[in-house]
Design the sequence.
């Protein structure tokens, strides 16, 4: 049997709604079911793409997988063990990357990297080695001692990536990996993800960009209204049509219903 | 513990690498100093310019129940001072006595300027004090006149030198008795009771409005809070590291603000015929520092509960108005009774006014400091607990 490095079993997440939120969303219920009975798994050396319209539950799912928020129901297993049994150990093995991350303008990439590496419990020599490796890979080394506020948007994103991966995680969870990046920076990130796959890392990304899914992902899951509507191998799913057609066939079908 | 130190150092680095933050931390102290200097100059120019009193006769009245055969020990000490002080060579002193039952009538003579100072002894004061039994005496003067203020200052110092066991201007219930009988509409009282607490409190709070929103809400907004929450560190360590850094920074800022007060207040007070003893500065120092820690507690809690710096500032900003209103309230309504010491924030502004007007009671002061410390601890505890709530911490 194939070894799952990360497995979500019947995940469910509900949020209590305020009166204002209920009015805005035209809902009569007290709770919003963001994710409902969602199961998926990751194996080492694969990229899993999570596709879905806005508000489908992608970010909530990724946040539960990363341990940032706890599921209301179900569980997340890392190498077969519930992540909340040894959360500190799990957090050393996982990285949650998001394009929303804006590092402190007044620090340098060098200081920020060291700060986070220390929080992950890395030794100084380990940190220095990893920093040199990632900074060279992203071309940050030339700007390592400049204040982040003086870097370009693309370079800031690369610093965020490097910092998020400082602890050399086994599982990488990436919410909208190329969001806000220019085409050159986007290509760098894509290459970086492919490189991570070659190193047997398990990667899950959420995105709206179909071409990115087709280019990078081995398997795809389509999520809508909190439920995983479709999951499969990218080659099988796109054997006779594009992933875009698959997606809209599913989402438009729901709208017509 | 290692992570706590690491987080603390990062927060400190954050404060001291941002020029805007540095300005917010230390500018209030400078503004306080400049503001009080300017006020002092304006008031001095419209008042008598000499701070020394010359060619005058001090009229001091004391109650005749002091308990020893000759004059009270305190007036003998005053005579000795007059004989030995070069500054007092051109001045004379005249004494009057009165029965303690007539105290209220005698106080009126202070207000009218007929007496410069009244000493009201408790029965057999000298005998009781010499026997090591604590007892109390009250001093009354008119802070509107320079001569009376001058005599009050000297006598206040001589009380401490002459006696070991005593209470000054504190009644049997431990409540303070105002020494300054200057009319209530006297400008000095207004300034000391309202403007000083108002300016000081609002400037101290402005420090908190500047540094606290970014501490937690700003990190949530930037996503760095989520990044830190995903590291293996204990969330309590993260919260405590941040709280400690805010406290240390605000105390440094408070120390600068207090320095500004200590440097400029004598200038302002000289323009108002007021003056402060060294112990009043010590009390003010304690009050400024504990008040700042209380404000930091509020600031940290608000920052923790909100999702962005802007939102946190929108809650903290209007609080300045509340504190200014409390300063005005404490200056216009009698808030000297001990019960007011249990009302947070109002007790701080009341305390400031009372210290400056020379009418502070130690129980009131101690309760105020205690209340501020307890509230600070409660706010810090709540903030630390909230770091474990995903609803609060995840944007």
Sequence:
């Amino acid at each position: 049997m194939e070894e799952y490095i990360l497995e979500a079993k019947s995940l469910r997440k509900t949020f209590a709604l305020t009166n204002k939120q209920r009015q805005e969303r035209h809902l009569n219920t007290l709770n919003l079911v963001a994710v409902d009975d969602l199961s998926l798994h990751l194996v080492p050396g694969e990229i899993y793409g999570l596709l879905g319209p806005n508000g489908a539950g992608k970010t909530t799912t990724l946040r539960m997988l990363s341990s940032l928020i706890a599921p209301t129901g179900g569980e997340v297993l890392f190498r077969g063990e519930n992540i909340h049994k040894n959360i500190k150990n799990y957090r050393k093995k996982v990285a949650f990357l998001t394009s929303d991350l804006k590092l402190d303008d007044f620090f340098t990439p060098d200081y920020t990297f060291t700060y986070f590496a220390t929080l992950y419990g890395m030794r100084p020599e380990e940190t220095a080695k990893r920093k040199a490796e990632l900074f060279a890979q992203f071309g940050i080394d030339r700007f390592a001692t400049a204040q982040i506020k003086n870097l370009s948007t693309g370079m800031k994103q690369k610093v965020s990536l490097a910092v998020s991966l400082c602890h050399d995680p086994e599982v990488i969870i990436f919410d909208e990996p190329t969001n806000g990046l220019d085409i050159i920076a986007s290509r760098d990130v894509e290459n970086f993800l492919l490189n991570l796959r070659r190193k047997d890392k398990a990667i899950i990304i959420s995105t709206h960009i179909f071409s990115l899914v087709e280019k990078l992902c081995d398997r795809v899951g389509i999520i809508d209204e909190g439920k995983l509507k479709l999951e499969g191998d990218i080659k099988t799913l796109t054997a006779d049509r594009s992933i875009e057609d698959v997606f809209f066939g599913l989402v438009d079908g729901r709208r017509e219903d | 513990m290692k992570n706590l130190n690491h987080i603390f150092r990062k927060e400190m680095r954050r404060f001291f690498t941002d020029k805007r933050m540095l300005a917010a931390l230390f500018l209030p102290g400078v503004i306080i100093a400049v503001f009080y200097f300017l006020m002092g100059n304006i008031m001095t120019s419209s008042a008598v310019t000499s701070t020394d009193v010359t060619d005058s006769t001090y009229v001091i009245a004391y109650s005749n129940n002091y308990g020893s055969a000759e004059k009270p020990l305190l007036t003998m000490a005053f005579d000795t001072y007059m004989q030995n002080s070069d500054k007092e060579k051109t001045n004379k002193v005249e004494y009057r006595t009165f029965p303690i039952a007539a105290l209220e009538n005698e106080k009126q003579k202070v207000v009218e300027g007929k007496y410069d100072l009244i000493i009201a002894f408790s029965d057999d004061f000298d005998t009781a004090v010499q026997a090591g039994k604590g007892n109390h005496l009250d001093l009354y003067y008119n802070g509107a006149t320079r001569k009376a203020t001058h005599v009050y200052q000297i006598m206040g110092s001589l009380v401490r030198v002459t006696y070991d066991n005593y209470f000054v201007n504190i009644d049997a219930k431990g409540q303070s008795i105002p020494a300054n009988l200057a009319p209530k509409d006297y400008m000095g009282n207004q300034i000391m009771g309202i403007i000083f607490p108002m300016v000081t409190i609002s400037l101290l709070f402005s420090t908190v409005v500047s540094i606290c929103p970014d501490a937690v809400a700003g990190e949530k907004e930037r996503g760095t809070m989520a990044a830190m929450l995903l590291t293996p560190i204990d969330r309590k360590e993260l919260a405590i590291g941040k709280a400690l850094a805010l406290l240390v920074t605000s105390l440094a800022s408070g120390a600068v603000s207090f320095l500004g007060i200590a440097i400029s207040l004598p200038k302002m007070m000289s323009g108002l015929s007021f003056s402060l003893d060294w112990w009043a500065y010590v009390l003010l120092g304690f009050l400024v520092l504990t008040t700042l820690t209380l404000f930091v507690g509020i600031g940290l809690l608000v920052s923790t509960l909100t999702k962005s710096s802007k939102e946190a500032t929108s809650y903290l900003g209007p609080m300045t108005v509340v504190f200014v209103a409390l300063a005005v309230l404490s200056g216009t309504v009698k808030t000297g009774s001990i019960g007011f010491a249990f009302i947070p924030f109002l007790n701080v502004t009341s305390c400031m006014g009372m210290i400056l007007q020379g009418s502070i009671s130690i129980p009131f002061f101690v309760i105020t400091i205690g209340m501020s410390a307890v509230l600070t601890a409660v706010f810090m505890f709540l903030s630390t607990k909230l770091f474990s709530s995903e609803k609060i911490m995840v944007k």
Summary: Residues 187-222 of chain B form the longest helix (36 residues). The interface with chain A takes residues 3, 6-7, 10, 13-14, 17-18, 222-224, 226-233, 390, 394 of chain B (CB under 8 Å). Residues 142 and 226 of chain B are 61 Å apart (CA to CA). Residues 2-43+186-393 of chain B form one domain.
